[in-house]
Amino acid sequence: MDPAKEQQQENSSLKPELEKDLVTWVAPARPFKRRDKQFYLTTISIAGIVCLILFLAEGAMPVILIVSLIFLYYVMSTVAPEDIEYKITNKGIKVGGRTTNWQFLGRFWFGKRYDSELLIVETAFIPNRMELVIKSEVKEEIKENLKKYLIEEEISPSKLDKAIDWFSKKLPN
Fold it and tell me: Which residues are listed as membrane-spanning (predicted)?
């Protein structure tokens, strides 16, 4: 066999694969639900009591932290998220132009928060999961394409997840 042809064959097998879009959709950046005055009144009342107790026990720093977290939550629940583009490619998952490669992703499953369908993917870095808002029309196509690269298996909720769920059920809608 000709050495030039062998060299050409070796080079073609080492050529990196081009990125190819498998599924693309546009959806909000995060789940969103507008809250009413009753919700904010209840939240601020609970936070006020906790702040008073912490102020008497620890001082001003925990109070500042709680007030800043309440403000952050208020802003996130009054400002609607922008729509961004999500892509599943042969190289990984791309959210708003940033790619997370398959090697950093684990299992995936579907969930729901507020009125939004979510694709939840386990990641190898903190916060240990990626939650993508999906449209119900593309759910089956997403599932079909992700099964080629990842395992579909829901992980059990952590103690923090259980505590957040319990607390959110106690607050008014």
Answer: 39-57, 63-81
Same domain, 112 and 86: yes
Are 128 and 62 in the same domain?
A: no
Query: Which residues does the chain have with pLDDT short of 70?
Result: 1-15, 171-173
**φ and ψ of 160, to 5 deg:** -65, -45
| CA neighbor of 114 nearest in space, from 80, 69, 162, 63 | 80
Assess whether 62 and 135 both reside in one domain: no
- How many distinct structural domains can be found in the chain? 2
pLDDT by residue (tens digit) across 100-131?
888 988 889 898 888 888 998 888 888 888 88
Q: 1: exposed, middle or buried (C-beta count within 10 Å: 0-12, 13-18, 19+)?
A: exposed
Determine the Cα–Cα distance for residues 64 and 59; give it in Å rounded to an integer: 10
Domain housing 113 = 21-29+82-155
